[in-house]
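S.,

Sequence below, as promised.
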Amino acid sequence: MNNQKGQALPVALVILAAGILLIAPFISHASSNVIGSRIYGQAITKQYSADAGVEYAIWHLLSGQAGVPEGEMLELPGFTLNSNTVNVTIENQGGGIYKITSTATSLDGSSITIESSVSYRSSNVFTVGNSGTIIRYRGTAWSPMTSGTTKNLQGVWGSSDSDVFAVGNSGTILRYRGTAWSPMTSGTTTTFNNVWGSSDSDAFIVGDNGTILHYDGTAWSPMTSGTTRNLQSIWGSSDSNVFVVGDTGTILRYRGTAWSPMTSGTNRNLQGVWGSSDSDVFAVGNSGTIIRYRGTAWSPMTSGTTTTFNNVWGSSGSDVFAVGNSGTIFHYDGTNWSRMTSGTTTTLNDVWGSSGSDVFVVGNSGTIFHYDGTNWSRMTSGTTRNLQGIWGSSDSGRLKILTFTIQ
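The prediction came back faster than expected:
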């Protein structure tokens, strides 16, 4: 028994030593796990905070609050989340591409940066009218813009939501480049009635007495129209396929070299023109006149009214809207024209939409209506002046994340 006890002690010491050797790594590993978990948790909270900064920037873009001129950067107000200071910038890289940079910095000075590129064009709709009125819709409400003129403005068009032209009486041309409206030299005092272009360096203006001007990206210059009739509206499918309509049934077409007359088949004044393609074009005018070009000749359509139409727009050749006097709105479904209920007797002057379920109509006394695909509803314009023209960015309101990197 004594001998066994003598043998047991060395064995116990060996077992204890072995246990210490085995337990020590476990204790060290457990300690490392606690520290590692803390570090990992801090990294996760920083990443979460930086990601929140990206979402913050996206919210600003979608809400229309972060107007960033092309080529410039906007720094948003910083905020604190999970003890991390978050700083966010939005850079407009042009072409509807925005670079969002969000950096989350912890109390120990370490940081995580997320860079994301998004494609986005905010809801941008412009309408112009009498006494230099310009108001803009950015998805929530209409707000006035400073035009710098008191001349009546008749038409508006843009190549993008940050490059827009407005034209009007006495040879007035204004241009918006993302920050403010500024005058352009027209070289004439003739009244301009409308404007359209294929790009920011290829635009056309039409006006009274057969006036047509062309912009090449540098200056406006007169073109030979071959008529002295007042020209009211213009639309094209490309820079080499442009249609102009005007008084006493005048229709002109530009094929890249010169303007040439077309036979309209009517002597009524034509007020508006729009097409779904170069071989499917609608023109509207006085006494309920609607004519259509299908690639070979213009032919009359039955409107069912003698009310004057002032303009026309569609989302396709089978989804077309014509607006006019006495609150008139007609719709073409590919087969027939039918009257829609507008809820007003006010003269309606122009129509534009981004789709068949997002259509705007403007008219006299500050009238603006919106169509959601089912009903027309009145919008608050904030003005009582006559509104003559409307245009917006067709791909507005859509956001797509292109890249997302963590540094």
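The two ends are 70 Å apart (CA to CA).

Coffee later?
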